[in-house]
Amino acid sequence: MGSGHRASRRRAARPSLGARLSAGLGARLGPLKEGLAPHARRLRPQYPRPGRTDWRRWVPSWRQSLGAVGVSVGLGVVFLGVAYAATDIPDDLNTFATQQDNVYFWSDGTPMARTGWVRRQAMPLKDVPEDVRSAVLAAENASFYSDPGISVSGITRALVRTVGEGDTQGGSTITQQYVKNVYLNQDRTLGRKLTEAMIALKLDNNMSKDKILEGYLNTSWFGRGTYGIQRAAQAYYGKDVGELNASEAAFLASLLKGAGLYDPALSQANRDRAVVRWGWILDRMVDLGELSKSERAKYTKFPEPLKQANSYDTGKQSDYLLELAGQYAKKAANISAQEFDRGGYQIYTTFDKKRQTELTAAVTKARKDAKKDSAKKAKTTHFGASSVAADGRILAVYGGPDHRTQGYNESNATTVPAGSAFLPFVYAAALQYGISTDRDSGKTGVTPQTPYNGNDAVPVTTPEGPYWDRDGDKVFAHNDGNRSWGQISLHTALAESVNTPFMQLGMDAGLPTVRKTAQDSGFLASSFGAEVPALSVGSATPSAIRMASGYSTFAADGKHTEPYSVRKVTHNGSKVPMNTPKAKRAMSAEVADQVTDALEDAFTGDHPLAAPATARVAGKGGTTQDDKAAWYVGTAKYVSTAVVVYRIDLTKSLEPLKLDGIAGEPNAGLPYEIWSKAMSPLD
Fold first, then answer.
1. pLDDT tens, residue by residue, 271-295
2. Which residue in 22, 178, 193, 551 has a CA-CA distance of 20 to 30 Å to 239?
3. Which residues fall within 8 angstroms of residue 503, CB to CB, at 6 or more apart?
4. What's the CA gap between 498 and 665, in Å, rounded?
């Protein structure tokens, strides 16, 4: 009991900290409270108000109204300050806002196709003409370079609409619109509008006006599937933004209000609206001092946009071209797949539009002809073709009937052997490096007139004697139709496509040497199998591209350039460094000329009236002993084209089937028909 009493005394003797502070504060504020009390009583609403009658009893005094407004303004300022401080500029842009398409161009620079989900190409502001910038500013935000990034009056109008009509459209500066494009979604809510304004204020303090305008021009929607002023210029006028005049720019600026309302292609009403807004924007540019009256006087006629934009979409044959060019661009320019998929690349290909059209038409006709001859065989017939320039440029390819239904590229497939189309490389190897028929003696040279045994069923020999295969059987060389030619010069043997001399010539020159010559001329190492006598008569399986590339080496005086499909890559207009193939010596110019002479005689012998006597056209057919492939390969005017026809029933196996006559006669059937049309005119 004693201890409790003492505790009570201690508590009573020492008040708490809060009590002491309250007491002290109360003592000090006491006089102030007494002074403010009358004013507080005046501000405090009293209803009904004493001393008033009728409805006036319920109306606050002016002091009360002024106080309420002051409190509201103060709270609003505090709220906006807190909101501004709490708002950060997002680190990441919307994925959609940064996504661009990749655009592919023909060799002449005209657009070929585009890939990607979004049609957008970012353009540096320096590449956007002043008239285009001025038109956009006049249409959307004339005070852009002087405002703080937001429009107070515009936001107020938006708030009124939100309360009255539930619509927050309107009232946005270019900065706010840019924020909405790249950081936020398109929701029309008051919360999104407030966030937009706060980010716009901060962005205006952290980013230059030019950068904001550049971003806005590159991310805005212009209709016709396009984002950004560059794609809009191409979609509506078929030109780059740098080529627009003030009149065209004024129309494109009108689309920022809503392309669905101003694109003339959609309706007459749209055109009428567009004409009115176009004229208003030009007049507005004059009022702002951005366009002279004399310049304005030139634009009296509405600049009609294209009726329909050229989409340059992919499909059918173009997809084969894009596949080749896209793969090459990534490798040669060291672009990762992820970077490439983000878009913004312009790929300038080597593909010649005219040659591509002619090659496609030639194969399409051949397909129809094959179907007429034998519909059943035609279903399993495949065509691969390619044209390659002597400097390595791939000019055209035929990859298949439709990439969307057949994903693999016939022109790039290593499916069937080269057959007798390979003989020129055996000939070149022997001419370049000589031959050896005796282990104890060195190499001796050969010439086009060196004779070889052209008879059928000649045994293949080595310096030690006959060549035996793995089964212990002696190997014999055979000609087409088992024809025997007797002693024949190498030149004539190639011109007449006689196999037996070359099967032995390959052994004499050395199969590794033959393979090296073919690889130096463009064949891939992966297309070769075992180094056995069959190598000399075309056991390698090159693609049509590689076969055409190999023959182009002869047309290039013995120099070989790796085939390539892209000559230049840019990213949003800036050149991307890339590795371009350089020509390398595969054989001497003299050897290349000797091979070409024999191929000229081969072509003239099979098709004496196909080309003028002054034209240097070289070419020959290629057949395989098992009748599973038919080729025609040849050069004219420094362009080499290779065509192959074969059969595979993909529903059953990947093993080639016998042609069984579907390709026609050697040197004059479907492969040659396609080749001659693709290479026409031969003069």
1. 999 999 999 999 999 999 999 999 9
2. 178
3. 458, 460, 477, 533, 536, 537
4. 16
